[in-house]
Amino acid sequence: MTATTAGRSATAGFLDAMATLAGGVCVVTAAAADGTPAGFTSTAVMSLSRAPQLIAIGVQRGSRTLPLLQDGGRLALNILAADGESVSRRFADPTVDRFAGLEWTTGEGGVPLLLEQSTYAVVCRVREEVAAGDHLLLIAGIDEIIPGRGGDSALVHHARRYHGVGA
Predict the structure, then answer these.
(1) Which of 32, 50, 76, 140 has the fewest CB atoms in 10 Å of its CB?
(2) What DSSP string describes 80-92?
(3) What is the pTM of this model?
(4) How far apart are alpha carbons 122 and 155 in whole angstroms?
């Protein structure tokens, strides 16, 4: 049996419903063994536990960055500031060099940090992977929290549009 929503497919209904769920916009970054940076935009991020400090990130199985994150990989969760839409779009576009011309630095373990574009960068190591349909849910332990450029603004994605909050 296939679910429908007012005559639409279950997939279209699912996407429409999830578009109404506001999500904070982050860029997940990692580095290959040779130091080559990689990353992607994500709204599928959540704080998971305060003790121990854990986050969860949903990663599409076909992501080019995923192999760098698996098996205890190190990552940075760059929480974009309210004016970070162009950075979000850049890291969502698979056809561009995402780091070209962008100001960034490296943190512990060589992970790329987008401190000028973010309120915080959270450096983590993947502890566990959970299969979740066409994604993997990565559970990561927090090693370091680095303040970005300051402020308490945030970029959120809601109803297929970007919105700055607290700006």
Answers:
(1) 50
(2) E-TT-HHHHHHHH
(3) 0.91
(4) 16
